[in-house]
Structures are given as structure tokens and as C-alpha cells.
Amino acid sequence: MKLQTITQATIVSHSILLTAAAGSIRGSDSGRVLGGLFGGSTRIIGGEAAIEDRYPYAVSLTDDFGHFCGGSLIARDVVLSAAHCDDQGEGAYKAVVGRHAHVDNDGQELSVRQALPHPNYDRVTTDNDFMLIFLNEAASDTINIVKLNTDAATPDIGSPVTVMGWGDIDPTDDGQVLSSELMEVEVNTISYEECDNSSGNSGSYQDSITSNMLCAREEGGGEDSCQGDSGGPLVIKGANPNGADDTQVGVVSWGIGCASADYPGVYARISSQYEWLRSELCARSNFAPSEFDCSNAAPPSTTTSSESGGSSVPSNNNDNDDDDDWNDDNTYFPTMQPTQSQADDDWNDDNNINFPTLQPTQSPQWR
Asked: Where is the composition biased (Acidic residues) (predicted)?
């Protein structure tokens, strides 16, 4: 879902950078600037470079411009990512596995056979922000996949969880500086009530948090995922140094700003939609892991998907959808291209880049 360049300034994010209530989409776009090994900050927001091969299941989704979203390898031929990372028909992309730093040429670049967003994904509320990506080739059997959490009571409130990605490492920069190497940061989960009550100068999360979401933060701010980390895994780390007993509990989804003391990061909760993930993986993967117990899995539901990494439009079957949220061209609110009728006040004159203005309490923005 890519923003279009309106002026000579380069847009460097899949995210919508808002002029007032600054929510954030945690994906990235053309004009991406790599930091880390190129002399930028060596830290994700409050985090640090991951030990190489510690998270072998971490996946970078890349197109002609480079990295734009993250993902996790949950079967040798299946990547789990965020539905808002779907490429919207602007070119094929690949899943890169086994590569710690983007400046390297190791690992595997695997082509996409099919992208399958959750059928109840809601572009307005970002509910059910899950997408399964089925690959044409299988990843090496030497790469550890990550296990998915099935327990609704896990993780415990206040427990440490780890998020990783190649996203923005300096949210104070006007542009976006993506990390060249995989970064990680530890945050703590918070309760549904605390998350839904989050508010600050940029808006409120009130009535935006659903049972399909999980929130995590560092008390006082300073540590978080950010733009470019969308779709990446939130995990409970195990003792194995190669990630073999890590458990994924969430998918990087959205938030207002990055590493704010007022606003936690919001993740798609794995356990809430595990049965959908299981049924689709069992039906479509050629390498379904034994823990999915595919012989007893329910048949998949009817969904709309995209082939070869192109656009996919989820079914508009949410109970809370309103016809006014959709336009006749099947471009879903929030629109990525501003209309000519927007007032001058809607634009950020300082950076000469035009962005639509949204209220985060009405339409959360992805990371």
C-alpha cells in the first residue's frame, strides 16, 4: 500500500505521516535509507542489533525498492505478516529468509505464490491484521521456523516479549532511516484496559483495541517497534540460541508514533485467530509442521487472495463496516492519495509532502 510522491521530496514510508494526530503505519516504501552499517544509529527504538542467526525465522519482505515490511517463517513455504503490508498491485515482492543484514547477499530470496489476508481484516480499524504468504519455493530445512501461540491467556500481563525488524531506527528524523541489520527490543505486555485507555496530545486509543489485538510497551517510553517493522513477529523468547523454542504471540500492526510514553505498540494477537491460520496453512502448505495437527484441522473458509505477490482485496464482510467507508474504486479508507479538494491546512508545508489528515481514534495507522 504505497504513498505516491506529490512533490520533489522523497516519501520514505508505507506509513501515513500525519500533520496533526500522528498515528503511524509500521511499513516502509520507496526512497528508503539504510542506516546501521552505513553509519546511522546502531539501535532500533531503544533496542540493539540482534545476534546473527538468533531469529532465523525473521523474514524481510522486499520489492524493487528494498525492504518494506517484516514477517515470520511459520512453515518452510509460509510467511506470516500483516494484512496492511499487502502490496496493492504495485509490483511483485519476495520473502528474504536467512539474511541478517541487507548489505549481504546470503540467505534465500523466495518468490510469492499467493498472499492471503484475513477475510475479516478491517482497513479502517486494523482489526484482524493478519496475512499468510505462500511461497513458490521452500526455505532451507536448516532454518528454524517459529511456533505460534495457541493459548488465549498467554502472554501474562507485564511479561517481557521481544519484537524484531529492519524498521526505522530514528523516529526523530524527518525522513525514515531503516536499519541495515536485524534489530531487536524487549517490551512488556499490558492489559486490554490499560491499552484502550491510552491517550495523549495526539489522540486516544479508546474503543480502538479489540480482542484480536495485543499491546506492549516500555514504561516511560523509549523502546518500541516503528515504521518498517510491520508484519514482524512479537515473541516470547525460549532458551535455544537459534530460536527453536521461541513462541510468536503477535504481529507488528499499528500505533501512534513510536516509543511514546503515552501510546503502546499494538500487535495482532496470534491466539485469537490461530484456527484460521491453522486451517489455511494446512490446506495450502506443502510443508505444514506437525504441531499444526493438520489431520484434525477445519477446512479453510472462502477468502479472496492475490497470486504472485500482487494485490488482494479482503472480503467486505465485517459487521462494523459502513458503506460510507468504501469508495467505488475499491480503494479503502484511509486513501493513500490525497484529493485535489483538500484544504491547504491538510498539508505539511514544512516538508512539502502532501498527506491525508486522519484522526487516530477513527482510523488507526499501521506501522
From this structure: 319-328
